[in-house]
Task: inverse folding
């Protein structure tokens, strides 16, 4: 076998393994450090972004553009379009039949957080309905509140997570419904001390995933899931996780 014959065979094998269909999807994320956010040059980065890039490598998918936009807008596109992958999306029971899923990126603890000095004590979730609660617009934190019967006039929502935190710290809201990991990462970036805040209630513990438009084929989602599982089992994955999600 000549050198060129060998190279041609390798190229054909690579093309056979390639997934052009995964390259035709529209990938969308939001500002949600440490999972997904813009770096100093405006490019998408973060734990979920690097995980996605490794899935592309595993499936021989060429690198794709990633649009960073407010969560409510991305969620709307996922619901209306036939070719969207939105991440990092919490896979709740209510959302499960609405989309197709590849999991997990991580596990999300969605909690109600308050200021420690306020001494808010919740013996049951119903007690929280006496307070004003901030949340991200169309975020799982808001959706879980609605699902549990919280009224709109007791909620304050924002497209910007930092604004939602400010609602809490300024006293405009009594509690914040959010992902616990994301919250403590963000307050660290703002120089706020963790002991200023206290988790008052856990609303859910569900996986963070890549959510696909319902029209995306089961075969394509399964191909992505297989690539994701191979990345999660790779020897380089633990170091990636420690870099973004230290224990």
Result:
């Amino acid at each position: 076998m000549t050198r060129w014959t060998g190279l041609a065979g390798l190229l054909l094998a690579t093309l056979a393994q390639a997934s052009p269909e995964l390259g035709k999807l529209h990938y969308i994320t939001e500002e949600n450090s440490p999972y997904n956010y813009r770096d100093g040059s405006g490019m998408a980065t973060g734990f979920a972004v690097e995980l996605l890039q490794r899935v592309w490598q595993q499936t021989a998918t060429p690198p794709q553009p990633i649009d960073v936009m407010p969560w409510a807008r991305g969620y709307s596109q996922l619901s209306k379009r036939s070719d969207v992958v939105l991440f990092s999306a919490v896979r709740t029971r209510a959302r499960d039949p609405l989309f197709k899923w590849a999991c997990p990126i991580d596990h999300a603890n969605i909690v109600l957080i308050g200021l420690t000095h306020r001494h808010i004590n919740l013996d049951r979730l119903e007690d929280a309905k006496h307070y004003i609660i901030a949340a991200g617009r169309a975020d799982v934190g808001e959706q879980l509140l609605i699902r549990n019967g919280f009224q709109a006039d007791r909620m304050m929502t924002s497209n910007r997570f930092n604004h939602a935190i400010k609602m809490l710290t300024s006293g405009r809201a009594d509690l914040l419904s959010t992902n616990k990991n994301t919250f403590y990462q963000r307050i660290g970036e703002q120089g706020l001390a963790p002991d200023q805040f206290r988790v008052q209630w856990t609303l859910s513990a569900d996986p963070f995933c890549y959510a696909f438009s319902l029209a995306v084929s089961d075969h394509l989602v399964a191909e992505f899931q297989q690539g994701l599982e191979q990345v999660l089992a790779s020897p380089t994955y633990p170091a990636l996780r420690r870099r973004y999600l230290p224990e």
Q: What stands out?
A: The longest strand covers residues 100-115.
